[in-house]
Amino acid sequence: MSTLELKELSHPSGEVIKIAAGKTLDLKSQGTTTLPTGSVLQVVSNYHAPSGHIEGTNTSLVSMGTAFELSITPKFSNSLILIDVLISMAHVVSGTGLMHTITKAGTPINTPTYGSYFYITGSSVSMYGPVSLQESSVAGSTSAITYGVSFRVDGNGSNCRALHNGGSYHIKLTEVAQ
Predict the structure, then answer these.
(1) 0.90 exceeded by pTM
(2) C-alpha 153: how far from its chain's center?
(3) Residue in 112, 123, 131, 116 with CA at minimum distance from that of residue 170
(4) Measured between alpha carbons, how far is residue 103 from residues 5, 28, 72, 106 in Å?
(5) 3-state DSSP call for residue 7?
(6) Interatomic CA distance for residues 100 and 161, integer angstroms
(7) pLDDT per position in the chain (178 positions), as tens?
(8) Residue 54 bridge partners (DSSP)
């Protein structure tokens, strides 16, 4: 094996630098590699379809549970973590609202008055629908970070379902270079 030491690698205009077929360019074994801002460094995701409802009457935020959490170990402390959550079916009843919010290590990333919010008025009415949440957060360290979802009920104290039986939950975490 030989070592080639260069200050800069360039190519003629209109050409590209190629790696021979069957060969590997290993950017991880020696030193570091700097990727452009906005480069995706890693993606982790989890899908969960519970056998029962995730429900409550709680008026303060409560976690949907550890089965609905996902951890990522950032490569860089200044990386941006994009969090995408899809809950296929939530359920609220008349005179009630249901709010979901994304958490980082058990604490809401943002504390809006209304995050993802369903509200129903009228008598004997209920509503089913999907919930889509997106947030971003600077990693802050290279230690594992756990993201999840909490929910609360607003209104007449009726039972609401943060995830209805038969529904599913998908969470995706994307680390992006800054």
Answers:
(1) no
(2) 22
(3) 131
(4) 46, 32, 13, 5
(5) coil
(6) 11
(7) 688 888 888 888 888 888 889 888 777 767 777 788 999 999 999 999 988 999 999 989 999 999 999 999 999 999 999 999 999 999 988 778 888 999 999 999 876 555 577 676 666 678 888 999 999 999 999 999 999 999 988 877 788 899 999 999 999 999 999 9
(8) 163
